Automatic annotation (TrEMBL):
Residues shown, of full length: 1 to 229 of 325
Role this protein plays: Part of the ABC transporter complex WtpABC involved in molybdate/tungstate import. Responsible for energy coupling to the transport system.
Family indicated by similarity: Belongs to the ABC transporter superfamily. Sulfate/tungstate importer (TC 3.A.1.6) family.
Protein name as it appears in the record: Molybdate/tungstate import ATP-binding protein WtpC
Keywords, ordered alphabetically: ATP-binding, CBS domain, Molybdenum, Nucleotide-binding, Transport
Annotated compartments: Cell membrane
Enzyme class, spelled out: translocase
Subunit structure: The complex is composed of two ATP-binding proteins (WtpC), two transmembrane proteins (WtpB) and a solute-binding protein (WtpA).
Catalytic activity as recorded in UniProt: tungstate(in) + ATP + H2O = tungstate(out) + ADP + phosphate + H(+)
Domain named ABC transporter: residues: 4-229
Record-listed E.C. numbers: 7.3.2.6
Cellular component, GO, one term: plasma membrane
Length: 229
């Protein structure tokens, strides 16, 4: 069953730049696809189209078998978690409030939100007391973990991660990668993970799609790519 499907998708921006050019791929339910390639090859544009933040110029994008043209955009975005490099936690809100933003928007009652926040703090291995802290009191790595927890809060079907660990020092990045791989096995979510770092792509993906100039030039398992001369 394919959770995300691109069929011949092209995106040309208003200034004439074609950022994505005839792109086709699918991500099966529960799978992690990493998109890897140099800056400017169209990774972020691809992510923004999955989330319906920008429309495709041509082609069809389907989520869980439904064309996003036929989806309610607000509902679609709520079923998709998005983690970016500069995580954008709200500084005037506590960690718990930040994690609870989407459940709150969805009208969950307070007890349910509180339970979910505690569950997620445990998942990202922060002490429950951290829920009362403010983002400025956390380290960069902890803030990035909170960003992941916030994206997962309402049990999204799809998790988009755009250079999620890109702003961290190499040691913190490495440990967050390892932690995330552990969490992943407990989650029932389909992931697209963007990076320009081939080592990270091979480590994090069930499948790795190599992008150049707005299209995928190779898509395989890490094992196959590593054995390819
Ligand atoms: P990546 O994430 O791989 O760095 P992007 O998707 O951000 O690539 O960008 C792909 C191409 O589209 C680049 O040439 C970039 O300059 C261009 N681009 C991105 N966003 C816009 C925009 N809003 N308007 C015009 N061109 C854009
Ligand atoms: P990334 O670091 O993800 O590759 P960029 O630095 O390419 O992102 O772009 C940052 C922001 O600027 C994005 O929102 C992108 O859409 C926009 N952008 C990038 N290139 C252009 C461009 N040539 N014209 C207009 N906007 C652009």
């Amino acid at each position: 069953m394919s959770m995300i499907q691109f069929e011949n998708v092209t995106k040309t921006y208003g200034d004439g730049t074609t950022a994505v050019d005839g792109l086709s791929f699918e991500v099966k339910a529960g799978e992690t696809l990493t998109l890897v390639g140099p800056s400017g090859c169209g990774k972020t544009t691809t992510m923004k189209m999955i989330n319906a933040l920008i429309p495709a110029t041509e082609g069809t994008i389907s989520i869980d078998g439904v064309s996003i043209d036929d989806c309610d955009t607000i509902e679609l975005r709520r079923s998709i978690g998005y983690v970016v490099q500069e995580i954008g936690l709200l500084d005037h809100m506590t960690v718990a409030e930040n994690i609870g933003i989407v459940p709150d928007l969805l009208g969950w009652d307070d007890d349910r939100i509180e339970n979910r926040v505690d569950e997620l703090l445990e998942l990202i291995e922060l002490p429950l007391e951290s829920g009362k802290q403010y983002p400025s009191e956390l380290s960069g790595g902890q803030r990035q973990r909170v960003g992941v927890a916030r994206a997962l809060a309402a049990n999204p079907q799809v998790l988009l991660m755009d250079e999620p660990f890109g702003a961290l020092d190499p040691i913190t990045r490495d440990s967050l990668q390892d932690e995330f791989l552990e969490i992943q096995s407990e989650l029932d979510v389909t992931i697209v993970f963007v990076t320009h770092d081939i080592d990270e792509a091979l480590k994090m993906g069930d499948k790795v799609a190599v992008m150049r100039n707005g299209d995928i030039v190779q898509c395989d398992t890490p094992k196959t790519i590593l054995s390819d001369p």
